[in-house]
Amino acid sequence: MHASVLASLLAEVIQHVKELKRQTSEMAEESPLPTEDDELTVDSICDEDGKFIVRASLCCDDRPDLLPDLTSALKTLKLRTLKAEITTVGGRVKNVLVITEEHNGTGYDDQQQLAAAIEDALKAVVEQRAEHDLSSSGGTKRQRTTSLLSAVEHSSI
User: Fold this and answer.
1) Is the distance from CB of 82 to CB of 53 less than 8 angstroms?
2) CA-to-CA distance for 132 and 63, rounded, in angstroms?
3) Containing domain of residue 115, as a range?
4) Are 70 and 138 contained in the same domain?
5) Residue 125 — φ and ψ, nearest 5°?
6) Exposure of 21 by Cβ count < 10 A (0-12 exposed, 13-18 middle, 19+ buried)?
7) Domain ACT: where (predicted)?
8) How far is the C-alpha of 85 from the C-alpha of 135, rounded, in Å?
């Protein structure tokens, strides 16, 4: 009987730890602060007008060419930014972008295909960090804490 009580208690503890991990993950997703690990999530929906909307969140090392690289990636896919939230802390950056198709479309018929293309393009931007790190002069990165919230309505990034 003692072993079954311990097993039951252990099962409860494991379940509680799993629930805490789930809650922590949810809080981290909602946090505007960058994490220590590179992350990329792309979620897509159709709004009430049937317009394809994508929420992309990426976290990586900050670098001078990051925003131009993001802009180029989105323009290449014929996307425009509806909203951008950018937070940098200690050399890390978190970008949360709400994007949609340009008025004349993207050329993708399938929304899942477009979401995959967006994810691939943003992943390539995040992975360019390694190339930038190798080619940098080895200077010390300045510590920064900046928060920028910008909403861009009806214009291309």
Assistant:
1) yes
2) 8
3) 39-151
4) yes
5) -65, -45
6) exposed
7) 55-137
8) 28
Would you say the C-alpha torsion 155, 59, 23, 19 has a positive or negative sign? positive
Mean pLDDT of 86-90: 90
The CATH number given to whatever domain includes residue 69 is: 3.30.70.260
- Domain identity same for 73 and 8: no
pLDDT in tens, 10-63: 999 999 888 877 776 665 556 778 888 888 999 888 877 777 889 999 999 999
SS3 17: helix
Q: Where are the beta strands (DSSP E) in the chain?
A: 39-46, 52-61, 79-89, 92-101, 145-151
Shared domain check, 95 and 133: yes
Structure tokens at 137: 């002069």
Is 24 found in the same domain as 59?
no
Domain count, the chain: 2
Examine residue 156 and state whether it is found in any structural domain, yes or no: no
| Residue 127: per-residue pLDDT | 87
**147: how many CB neighbours lie within 10 A of its CB?**
12
pLDDT at residue 143, rounded to an integer:
41
Residue 4: inside a domain: yes
